[in-house]
Specification:
The radius of gyration is 26 Å and the shape is elongated. It folds into two domains: 214 residues, YjeF N-terminal domain (Rossmann fold, 3-Layer(aba) Sandwich), CATH 3.40.50; 192 residues, UDP-N-acetylmuramoyl-L-alanine:D-glutamate ligase. It is α/β, with parallel strands linked by helices and 507 residues long. The relative contact order is 0.10. The two termini are 29 Å apart. The chain is built from 16 helices and 17 strands. The chain binds ligand NAX, adenosine-5'-diphosphate and potassium ion (K). Adenosine-5'-diphosphate binds next to helix 14 and helix 15. Pfam families: Carb_kinase (PF01256), YjeF_N (PF03853). This is Bifunctional NAD(P)H-hydrate repair enzyme.
């Protein structure tokens, strides 16, 4: 699904109103009804639970007022608190007038903040996408008051104070929501690590915005949700043979880090590769042949690190990096690989660190190379620390455009960047995957998908990243998050890929 800027969100509202022949007030009613339904089905508050709604002067406040009316009509104990302002939006005013007189409704003032006990539910409808600058004065004091309360905080559309798609000064007042309920599509701000403590758990509520208009909007950020890639992995043809799915070469492992090679190799095999050859130093030979009998092993002549690039002729794709180490001899193997490879490359871990430490090597990256850094590796690659999360995304776009490569920036919402600068944020995965070796598994899986000539570079990257997270979600159902280890991910790659496989026969 697309991630819309605040400006495009407003355009979409207007277009929906026109196309469907409804008023903006009716659209607001849909939004309030969706909030009401979610609160009733997910929170199931008791009729006696005090529900305090904090309403700002714009349409976010209007949503809050309409919700207060619906709650009251259903018998719940709604209390409205208004943030005084010079001007109020028309739909705010309309809903203020529609609020039944029995609903307590007071203006907030510095000396008059309500008691907010743990048993209460707080609805933050102060500001949404119309926020134009950081909150100050009374609004900032209200936010601090809400954040001090032990009660459950639910933000409407956005936690108040948070901009939907742009950075804000550090330490700006922001509501710390437990839940954020937004309309139709998530916001870019929800996917950035620095906002996790404010956004909490987010959900999108459908309010019937015009899909046709969304379809025609040009954006450069997408969110990969559950159904997006279903059927994108071609079914294996009945008469396929191991050559159909490519022969991959993996260059990995060094003294003390042969496990990384084992994890990447098993993930590559579970990713459906036809044949796999692994280049490890001597120290890894017996380990690999024992732990991964399905893979062929081509040991380096050196005892503990990689020093020689094998002949690349037989291979459909090459992966390099897991457990590699950063010795000069291994750097020269990387240089030779970049200079001679004519097939897709997947570079991870120490291959990326070597690129960062020897930036002239970046000029040798063959087009469409796939790099899989975590944020620290990415910082080493670009050489300049990101000032904030949005700056990192700009660095990412600039990097892929400059090097004509694909870059998977790994995080809770991993971003796959395509050479044109489009970003695809991945929604699968869980914190159980924050465990050593998870990245090695991703490298192996991506290597398998890049060796499969039926897939484009972009599809391979998106399928691999999504399936890796999905494998993590399936594994966590069995192991729990804390108990999840990287080899559990490997076990669930098959089921995760199966979910994405086309039902029609492949050719
Ligand atoms: N499709 C959608 O997403 C829908 C959105 N609706 C709601 O409409 C909201 C957007 O409404 P608005 O555009 O009226 O915007 P807001 O309600 O977010 O706020 C705009 C008001 O706040 C003032 N303001 C902005 N920054 C301020 C600051 N730092 N300090 C003090 N005042 C400030 C503005 O002058 C304006 O009066 C959404 O967030 C959502 O809650 C729904 O009503 C209908 C459907
Ligand atoms: N909180 C999280 N939610 C979702 N995915 C996560 C989370 N933490 C880590 N991951 C995923 O786990 C992998 C970790 O990779 P990496 O940091 O390279 O690990 P390692 O170097 O130990 O193999 C990445 O794919 C990342 O997206
Ligand atoms: K809000």
């Amino acid at each position: 699904m697309k991630l819309l800027s605040a400006a495009l969100t407003r355009t979409l509202d207007q277009a929906t109103i026109q196309a469907q022949g409804i008023t903006s007030l009716e659209l607001m009613e849909r939004a309030a009804t969706a909030l009401f339904d979610w609160i009733l089905t997910e929170l199931r508050p008791a009729y006696s639970t005090p529900i305090h709604l904090f309403c700002g002067p714009g349409n976010n406040g209007g949503d809050g007022l309409a919700l207060a009316r619906l709650l009251h009509e259903a018998g719940y104990a709604a209390h409205v608190w208004l943030l005084p302002a010079k001007r109020y939006s028309a739909d705010f005013t309309a809903n203020r007038l529609r609020l039944p007189a029995e609903v307590p409704c007071q203006e907030l003032a510095a000396a008059r903040f309500p008691e907010l006990p743990a048993s209460a539910v707080l609805i933050d409808a102060l500001f949404g996408t119309g926020l134009s600058r950081p909150l100050t004065d009374l609004a900032a004091e209200v936010v601090a008051h809400l954040n001090r309360s032990p009660a459950l905080r639910i933000a409407v559309d956005l936690p108040s104070g948070l901009l939907a798609d742009a950075p804000q000064p550090p330490d700006s007042p922001l509501v710390q929501a437990h839940y954020t309920l937004c309309f139709e599509l998530p916001k870019l701000a929800f996917l950035l690590p620095g906002h996790a403590a404010f956004v909490g758990e987010w959900h999108t509520l459908q309010i019937g915005l015009e899909q046709e208009v969304i379809h025609n909007m040009a954006v450069d950020n997408y969110f990969i949700e559950d159904n997006y890639l279903k059927g994108c992995l071609p079914k294996r043809p009945r008469f396929s043979h191991k050559g159909t799915f490519g022969h991959a070469l993996l260059l990995a492992g060094s003294q003390g880090k042969v496990g990384a090679a084992v994890l990447a190799a098993t993930a590559c095999l579970r990713g459906g590769v036809g044949l796999l050859t692994v280049r490890v130093p001597q120290v890894g030979y017996a380990i690999l042949q024992t732990a991964v009998p399905e893979a062929m092993c081509l040991p380096d002549s050196a005892p503990d690190i990689l020093t020689e690039l094998p002949d690349l002729t037989p291979y459909a794709a090459v992966g390099m990096g897991p457990g590699l180490g950063q010795q000069a001899a291994s750097r020269e193997v990387l240089r030779q690989l970049l200079q001679t490879a004519t097939v897709p490359l997947v570079l991870d871990a120490d291959a990326l660190n070597l690129l960062g430490a020897n930036r002239e090597l970046l000029e040798l990256l063959p087009p469409d190379t796939l790099l899989t850094p975590h944020p620290k590796e990415f910082e080493r690659l670009v050489g300049i620390p990101a000032r904030h999360d949005y700056h990192r995304l700009e660095q990412l776009r600039a990097f892929v455009r400059q090097h004509r490569c694909y870059c998977v920036l790994k995080d809770a919402y991993t971003a796959v960047a395509a050479p044109d600068g489009t970003l695809y944020f991945n929604g699968s995965g869980n914190p159980g995957m924050a465990t050593g070796g998870s990245g090695d598994v991703l490298t192996g899986l991506l290597l398998a998908l890049r060796a499969d000539k039926r897939l484009s570079a972009l599809d391979a990257a998106l399928l691999g990243v999504y399936a890796h997270g999905r494998a993590g979600d399936l594994a966590a159902q069995e192991t729990g998050e804390a108990g999840l280890i990287a080899s559990d991910l490997v076990r669930f790659i098959g089921p995760a890929l199966q979910e994405l496989t086309a039902s029609a026969p492949g050719l």
